């Protein structure tokens, strides 16, 4: 189902009933959904049907079903953020800003999605709600922390979802599940009504089956929001339809050095092949990427631990075992380390701005390798064994740290990894999501990037 497909025969209500039935029938094997908002979805579908019957404009996403990572507030539900502790919160009194904007455009919310607890992970192996499985190979992870958001798209349960990205939590599951994802510029899309992880690094954005659907969702969600002080975008920037132009005149380079040294050779070759399809021959080495990742680690551990400090002191046993020790360690980080990490972050941001004086868009692998198995503690990259969960973000954390816009583009499957998908980051300067979409459109037109259906592995 394409998020921008033309509404044809049959009512929106009937379509949503079918979507809900499909989720109930098939999600048990994937575990992407935590809550299904059936009554709400049918009520919204009837409103869209009534608008269409009256000849009114029902919105650019009229009747499109969508679901959200369960750190987004949904009126009437407790905002779980993947945790046990948050079950005790009162139901949200209002919807998150982005849900409100999508519904104003005619979209239909059908449920909330599984995630790593408090967004602190890259695999969505959740002790409280179960692991989300990769629809391409159910014994493998879907990525995280927005694993449910990517898996629901990959399985064809919904064409549009929302997730968050602090250190790679949109781009990693996009890569692992073979779907499109957008991490916008820090502050571009409102975080109003979302449960925080690391306030100075958190982003929110969409996943979609199609690039056109990703663009349509991005368009309707933009705009400042008093609920998010960081959301002060310089202008609304429409990218859908004819605005996804070609790449003539763009200076595009493939990242080498750190971004290739920390990815398996097969992943690098697939990125090179995709670059060649659109005529990209220039390369660039990004300095200090490892330092940027180190700063992100310190900021993440420190801010997240402070957020949960009261509960860590009084009920540590109720936290997800996979994150509890990291939170406890983060609580011990000296303030001077945190301040220095923020200084390093600002310094590296300036280095990147200098880079964007000579190139417009940078292309790099999204993950070091395709998805590991559920429960797998280590994997190897370039013959080096390392912990799987934290190192899945090797290539995304340096970019998150400085808030750049990135589209995660699905660039195919790798036979040497059992036919699992892999993705590529399309990185631009702050506030230039339009350039990301232009390059993504060129890759799609050249056949170098496309949603990877499950049938491709059958």
CATH architecture: Alpha-Beta Complex
CATH class: Alpha Beta
Q: Strand portion, in percent?
A: 15-25%
Category by helix and strand content: alpha+beta
Largest sheet: 11 strands, mixed
Strand order of the largest sheet: 1-3-2-8-10-9-16-17-13-11-12
How does the overall form come out from the CA principal axes?
A: globular
Q: How many β-strand runs?
A: 17
Poorly predicted tracts of residues:
1-8
Tell me the number of helical segments per DSSP (H or I, 4 or more residues long): 15
What's the CATH topology label?
Amidase signature (AS) enzymes
What is the straight-line distance between the termini? 20 Å
Mean pLDDT: 95
- Determine the fraction of residues in helical runs and give it as a percent range: 25-40%
Radius of gyration: 20 Å
Descriptive labels:
458 residues, Amidase signature (AS) enzymes, eleven-stranded mixed sheet, 15 helices, 17% strand
Description:
With 458 residues, the protein is α+β, with helices and mostly antiparallel strands. The chain has a single domain, classed as Amidase signature (AS) domain (Amidase signature (AS) enzymes, Alpha-Beta Complex), CATH 3.90.1300. The chain is 35% helix and 17% strand. It is built from 15 helices and 17 strands. An eleven-stranded mixed sheet has the order 1-3-2-8-10-9-16-17-13-11-12, sandwiched between helices. α9 packs across α11 and α9 crosses α12. The radius of gyration is 20 Å and the shape is globular. It starts with 11 loop residues before the first helix and ends in a 13-residue tail after the last helix.
């Amino acid at each position: 189902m394409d998020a921008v497909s033309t509404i044809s025969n049959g009512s929106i209500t009937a379509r949503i009933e079918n979507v809900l039935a499909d989720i109930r029938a098939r999600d048990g094997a994937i575990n992407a959904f935590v809550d299904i908002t059936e009554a709400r979805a049918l009520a919204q579908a009837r409103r869209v049907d009534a608008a269409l019957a009256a000849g009114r404009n029902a919105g650019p996403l009229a009747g499109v079903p969508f679901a959200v990572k369960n750190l987004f507030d949904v009126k009437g539900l407790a905002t779980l953020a993947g945790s046990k502790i948050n079950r005790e919160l009162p139901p949200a009194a209002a919807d998150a800003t982005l849900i409100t904007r999508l519904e104003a455009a005619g979209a239909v919310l059908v449920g909330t999605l599984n995630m790593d607890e408090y967004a602190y992970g890259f695999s969505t192996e959740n002790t409280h709600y179960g692991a989300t499985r990769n629809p391409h190979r159910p014994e493998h992870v879907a990525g995280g922390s927005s694993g449910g958001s990517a898996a629901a798209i990959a399985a064809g349960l919904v064409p549009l979802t929302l997730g968050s990205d602090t250190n790679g939590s949109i781009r990693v599951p996009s890569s692992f599940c073979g779907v499109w994802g957008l991490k916008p510029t820090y502050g571009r899309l409102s975080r109003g009504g979302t449960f925080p992880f690391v306030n100075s690094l958190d982003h929110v954005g969409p996943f979609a089956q199609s690039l056109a659907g990703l663009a349509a969702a991005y368009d309707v969600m933009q705009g400042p929001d008093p609920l998010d002080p960081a959301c002060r975008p310089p202008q609304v920037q429409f990218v859908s339809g004819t605005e996804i132009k070609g790449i003539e005149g763009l200076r595009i380079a493939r990242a080498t050095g750190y971004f290739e040294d920390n990815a398996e050779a097969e992943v690098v070759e697939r990125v090179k092949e995709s670059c060649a399809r659109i005529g990209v021959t220039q390369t660039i080495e990004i300095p200090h990427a490892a330092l940027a990742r180190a700063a992100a680690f310190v900021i993440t551990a420190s801010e997240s631990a402070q957020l949960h400090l009261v509960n860590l002191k009084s009920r540590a046993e109720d936290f997800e075992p996979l994150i509890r020790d990291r939170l406890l360690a983060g609580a011990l980080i000296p303030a001077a380390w945190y301040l220095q990490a923020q200084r390093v972050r600002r310094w590296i941001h300036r280095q990147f701005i200098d880079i964007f004086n000579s190139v417009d868009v940078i292309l790099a692998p999204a993950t070091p390798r395709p998805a590991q198995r559920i429960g797998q503690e280590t994997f190897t990259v370039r013959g080096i064994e390392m912990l799987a969960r934290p190192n899945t973000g090797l290539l995304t954390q340096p970019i998150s740290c400085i808030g750049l816009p990135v589209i995660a583009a699905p660039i195919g499957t790798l036979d040497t990894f059992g036919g699992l998908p892999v993705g590529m980051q399309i990185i631009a300067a702050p506030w230039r999501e339009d350039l990301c979409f232009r390059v993504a459109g060129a890759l799609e037109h050249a056949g170098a990037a496309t949603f990877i259906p499950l049938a491709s592995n059958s």
